[in-house]
């Protein structure tokens, strides 16, 4: 998926939905539908737990560093940084 499309999807998520587990599950389900995937309740619970863990322990810079380690191109990382400003 194009980085621009992904960032636009993320920006379109209402912040209120990220505050509750039910809202997170709804957001993950919707994103899954947009990418052609469906998730079981167990998978949704795992993704919600993972999101909560990341929200507590990570910041933008550490997430960008992890993306770089996973093989994301430097130009894509620069585009993400520009859009986050």
Keyphrases for this structure?
DUF1002 domain-containing protein, single chain, globular, 85 residues, mainly alpha
SSE map:
Layout: H1 3-11, H2 21-34, H3 41-57, H4 60-69, H5 74-84
DSSP E strands, number: 0
User: Describe the biggest sheet?
Assistant: none
Termini, distance in Å?
22 Å
Radius of gyration: 14 Å
**Poorly predicted ranges:** none
Tertiary shape: globular
Please estimate the helix content.
over 70%
Short synopsis of the structure:
It contains 5 helices and no strands.
Q: Would you write up a description of this structure?
A:
With 85 residues, the chain is mainly α. It is built from five helices and no strands. Helix 2 crosses helix 3. The longest helix is centred in the middle third of the chain and has 17 residues. The chain is globular, with a radius of gyration of 14 Å.
């Amino acid at each position: 998926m194009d980085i621009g499309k992904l960032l636009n999807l993320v920006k379109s998520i209402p912040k209120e939905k990220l505050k509750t587990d039910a809202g997170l599950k709804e957001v993950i389900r919707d994103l899954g539908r947009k990418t052609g995937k469906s998730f079981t309740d167990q998978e949704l619970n795992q993704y919600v737990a993972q999101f909560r863990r990341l929200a507590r322990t990570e910041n933008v810079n550490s997430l960008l560093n992890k993306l770089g380690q996973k093989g994301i191109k430097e130009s894509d990382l620069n585009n993400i940084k520009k859009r986050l400003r």
